[in-house]
Amino acid sequence: IKLLCMIGELAPYTMDTSVHWAQPYWYLVNDTGVLWGLDIPLTASALNKPITRYEMCVMLSNFCANVL
């Protein structure tokens, strides 16, 4: 998730990391529609879990459609 933000030069608007260090980036990609169609909740266990190739393909497709 952070890598997609860096590629798109997106900066998180908050640095609240009460749940996980990637929480600000999750909020950013969720608000821009990158996580649309995926079930990646904002929990430490979900953010620590590796993503699948399918999830990455969906995120890249949504990223290209909504951010670029």
Question: What keyword list fits this structure?
Answer:
single chain; mainly alpha; 68 residues
Question: What would you note in describing this structure?
Answer:
The protein is an all-alpha fold and 68 residues long. Helices cover 50% and strands 0% of the residues. The protein has four helices and no strands. It has helices spanning 2-7, 23-31, 44-48, 53-66. The longest helix has 14 residues, at 53-66. The radius of gyration is 11 Å and the shape is globular. The chain starts with a helix and ends with a helix.
TL;DR?
Helices cover 50% and strands 0% of the residues.
Describe the SSE topology.
Blueprint: H1 2-7, H2 23-31, H3 44-48, H4 53-66
Show unreliable segments. Answer: none
Determine the oligomeric state from the structure.
single chain
Give the percentage of residues in beta strands: under 5%
- Series of H and E elements: HHHH
**Structure class:** mainly alpha
Question: What summary fits the major beta sheet?
Answer: none
N-C termini distance: 15 Å
